[in-house]
Amino acid sequence: MTAPVFVVERMPTGTEFVLEGPEGRHAVSVKRLQPGEDVVLTDGLGHWAEGEVRSAEGKDRLTVTLPAGVQEEPEPTPRITVVQALPKGDRGELAVETMTETGVDAIVPWQAARCITQWKGDRGAKALTKWRSTAREAGKQSRRVRFPEVAEAMTTKQVAALLAGADFAGVLHEDRDHDSTPLATAELPAEGTIVLVVGPEGGVSPQELTAFAEAGARPYRLGRSVLRTSTAGTAATALLLGRTGRWG
């Protein structure tokens, strides 16, 4: 069993650190960690430190010794970004959770033309906060020390600009009649950036496909079955991680 991960706002500078607040409460009252047990502290930005519990006090105070100091995990390459069309209900959080657990590096919410869900005003701000909180918690659960970035929601024009700057850009498209290539056989870069668009349940509109094609993004398919928008990004991320050698 790997050591549990706890998030800190700033990485410790000494050989001892006191974990308090919500993270300390989770460690003491939920995980019930005891002296001698191992933990990992991280800022979620790639910095981390292995520690050992020295003492647990009250309900939310954990003192940790850090014999090896702070280390940094290098940024992975190629970097994988999934542009996720907004799913219905809580399936957006499900998509973020499973993509994070799988290993995606960045997630971009996309307000596609055929999205039923609309992120506007306070509702949009709350939804974005949920996505970011989900990525943080899933990052901890999967023992990551570099959590995926969750960007502000983008328009189709903004997504096209993102695709234009990628070393590999693609759109998952399920239309059997469309001239799409299997993602499993696509030529992928050994480094740089990969950006893949996952459309909504209603599919990517012809106008969006045209805009993305002009930005250099070809249509790709995963397989014979059609996945829901909340699971397609996870399946594609797993495929890309395996094909680029990041899973090995």
TrEMBL record:
Keywords annotated in UniProt: Cytoplasm, Methyltransferase, rRNA processing, S-adenosyl-L-methionine, Transferase
Annotated EC: 2.1.1.193
Subcellular location as annotated: Cytoplasm
CDD domains found in the cross-reference section: RsmE-like
InterPro entries assigned to the protein according to its UniProt record, in alphabetical order: Alpha/beta_knot_MTases, PUA-like_sf, RsmE, RsmE_MTase_dom, RsmE_PUA-like, tRNA_m1G_MTases_N
Top-level division of the source organism's lineage: Bacteria
Known catalytic reactions: uridine(1498) in 16S rRNA + S-adenosyl-L-methionine = N(3)-methyluridine(1498) in 16S rRNA + S-adenosyl-L-homocysteine + H(+)
Gene Ontology biological process terms from the UniProt entry: methylation
Claim: S-adenosyl-L-methionine is one of the keywords in the record: yes
Protein name: Ribosomal RNA small subunit methyltransferase E
Gene source species: Streptomyces globisporus
